[in-house]
Amino acid sequence: MSLKAFHLIFITAASILAFGFGAWMLRAYQAEAQQSDLVYGVASLVVGLGLLVYEGFFIKKLKHVSYL
Fold this sequence. Notes:
Strand content: under 5%
Structural class: mainly alpha
Number of domains: 1
Distance between the termini: 6 Å
Shape: elongated
Radius of gyration: 15 Å
Number of strands: 0
Number of helices: 2
Helix content: over 70%
């Protein structure tokens, strides 16, 4: 597995984790209404979106490099 393929898998997994954590915190905010849960939830969703944007730029930049 190339470094490019590993990087794409790792960034995808990190963004899924960030979205999952964000959803979990927003549900906790709905249940308990603690301000910190809302902050963590929104911040995690923003990080997840940032990771997806980064992944798009990474794919564009290294489109000529093989996945193998």
